[in-house]
Amino acid sequence: MIGSIRRFIASESAGGVVLALAAIAALGVSNSGLGETYQRFVQMPGELRIGDALLLSKPLLLWVNDLWMAVFFFLVGLEVKRELLAGELASLRQALLPAGAALGGMLVPALIYAAFNAGDPVALRGWAIPAATDIAFALGILMLLGSRVPASLKVFLTAVAIIDDLGAILVIALFYTADLSLAMLGGAVVGGALLVALNRARVMQVGPYVAVGLLIWVFVLKSGVHATLAGVLTALAIPLRGADGRSPLETAEHALHPWVAFLVLPMFAFVNAGVVLDGVGLDTLGQSVPLGIAAGLVLGKAIGVFGSSMLLIRYAGAELPAGASRWQFFGVCLLCGVGFTMSLFIGALAFDGQGPDYDTQVKLGVLGGSLVAGVLGTLVLLRAPRAQ
After folding, report:
1. Please, what are the domains in the chain?
2. DSSP 3-state helix, strand, coil percentages of the chain (rounded to 5)?
3. What would the pLDDT profile of 355-365 be if each residue is shown by its tens digit?
């Protein structure tokens, strides 16, 4: 299990560097002479046909956000299942601190955002944007700090981010679902039943689950529920371990990690982070949406994660991660405010169809808040005394 966690951390942290480069490239290209080329690339059409029948027609941006991110959520589902059954969340005692920290880290940022946008029903749609943590970016920062950060804090951050992702999945399913098509939803339910049947039949090959998962993705996409949830449903059906001791789930997880870390998430960052800064002034930065997002990520995450953790340590018998001082722990709580990927994703869902102004405000708030949270967390960890 420790080896699995180490491989996970190594993959995520290296992917965080690539993710940062992709975001910087998107900002640079979209504000250069290649800006129009970038927009044409993002809006490049793509179609899925079977014979003469047109099944889907979407621009590249939506293919990435709907299909590629379903692969990311498939990986998240695998990680959640492994951690719940055999990992850091397998027992109540193990799960208590990261679960409480993640819950506080979702509630407080959402409340801060809502306070900034009270009275504006459209802006309030973005309440969940600052509730997310980007595990690749945050772990990348921790890995760059090397031995200054105890390994236990890296495991803690991993567990918090995984629970955070699970919370984001529930938020997307409950609050960012369009008008439902019952017929298509019924098809997705039938697909889910097929996944259960494969699991009960002890099918140990991942291929059949993925094939059914692709059908579920089409049904879910056309049902009105966000298609990325099909990835989670598929992942949860894959067996953790067979009678021979082999783990189809871990095999799929290890095979998929490099593709997600070095292709799926960087591509998501590249097509979503390209905000045009021409004409953006202090009046834009001072609007309630970017301010609420930035305040939620920087203040809300720090207060929510650290505050709920201290309450659990004092009143519920939880303990600080081994070998970590309180200041080091606080630095990691600040890093939970790096919400890049999931925050952008939720922002795109929250303000879908509301116009480019909201799109720009979301990107500015997420990029600015994540940057400040990352810098503050790094400075605290660099200055924090080590545990005695």
Report:
1. 2-176+226-383 (1.20.1530.10)
2. 75, 5, 25
3. 778 888 888 89
